[in-house]
Amino acid sequence: MDRPNETVDQIVAALRDKGSILVATHVFPDGDALGSQLALGDILESLGKKVFYYSDGGCSHLHDYIPNCQKLQSHLPDITTFDAAIALDCGDRLRLGHEGEHLLKIKPFIVIDHHAGHKEFGDINWVDAARSSTGEMVYELAQALGAQLSYDAAFALYAAIVSDTGSFKYSSTSATTFHIAGELVARGVKPAEVAGKIFDNYTANRLRLLQAVLATLEMHAENRIGLITVTRSIFAETGTTKEDTEDFINYPRALISVQVAAFIKETKENWISVSLRSKGNRDVAKVARAFGGGGHRNAAGFRIANTTAAEVSDSLLPQLKQLLT
């Protein structure tokens, strides 16, 4: 491993004499967000720190296999009791949730993220869009802190990396990614076990949801754009929630002719959530930013209020077609 950069050294110095630290991530956390948060909390505890695991939305049933999920707390105590705060995998202060502005009053506020469209906030920012995952960055921070990873932390980091690399198949996967994954396996993590937890976790209702969502498939731009949609009525009919749609976007993306895939989701009342995926150099983060969102070149998204799925589709498709020109 290369020597940690100056920002990592700055984070290490900032945490050295801190006794009580709040660790948070973004709303609707995915595997990388939760794995990074729970691993870093475990790492800090191993160094004698008192850690508060703040979560705006809790842990989805799809991720409750990650060790220490039960430590997540949605009720925020007196923030003056904290000596520092760390936000992980969060590309925008708004993604901290309804307590975001309150959290930012904790000083120093440290941000560790790998999103290309990151909107800088906080006091110390370590943002590296070349990284495969935030989990990869947390591993490097653990090395810089001189921490010995427990099995729980290693498991959480491996799950984070596998989740955000699509099991090592996305373009952000590097030699460093594989090196770190190998180190985590050497600490006892079983790749087959983690893969089973992430990819073999369907209930009958979730399979019915997938069936209903795939039935909405639309193909555009000479079959180079694949679009799927889920409505609130589909969720009601299948007894599922938004969390059950995780990774559904990969089905239209997997089509051989598709270069850009979109998944439009009706979530809370008056809210539409959109996931975007692409292959090659098609920069869907650029499209997401046009709608107030962000992400990576090949994986991005946004949320928009007071509209309908049909209206979002009408606005989105011209932008996606523009990517193909």
Could you walk me through the main structural features you see in this protein, from its secondary elements to its overall organization?
This protein is α/β, with parallel strands linked by helices and 325 residues long. It folds into two domains: 6-199, inorganic pyrophosphatase (n-terminal core); 204-323, Diaminopimelate Epimerase, Chain A, domain 1 (Roll), CATH 3.10.310.30. 38% of the residues lie in helices and 18% in strands. The strands form two sheets. Strands 6-7-8-9-11-10 form a six-stranded mixed sheet, with helices on both faces. Strands 2-1-3-4-5 form a five-stranded parallel sheet. It is globular. The mean pLDDT is 93.
Secondary-structure topology with pairs:
Layout (H helix, E strand, L loop, with lengths): L5 H10 L4 E6 L5 H16 L3 E4 L30 E5 L11 H4 L5 E5 L10 E4 L6 H12 L5 H15 L9 H12 L4 H9 L4 H11 L3 E3 L4 E6 L1 H7 L11 H4 L6 E7 L4 E8 L5 H7 L3 E2 L3 E7 L3 H15 L2
Parallel strand pairs: 1-2, 1-3, 3-4, 4-5, 7-8
Antiparallel strand pairs: 6-7, 8-9, 9-11, 10-11
Helix pairs in contact: 1-4, 2-4, 2-5, 4-5, 5-6, 5-7
Strand content: 15-25%
Number of helices: 12
- Largest pleated sheet: 6 strands, mixed
Give the H and E element order: HEHEEHEEHHHHHEEHHEEHEEH
Mean pLDDT: 93
**CATH homologous superfamily placement of the largest domain:** inorganic pyrophosphatase (n-terminal core)
Shape: globular
What is the number of beta strands?
Answer: 11
**Span between N and C termini?**
40 Å
Physical arrangement of strands within the biggest beta sheet: 6-7-8-9-11-10
Number of self-contained structural domains? 2
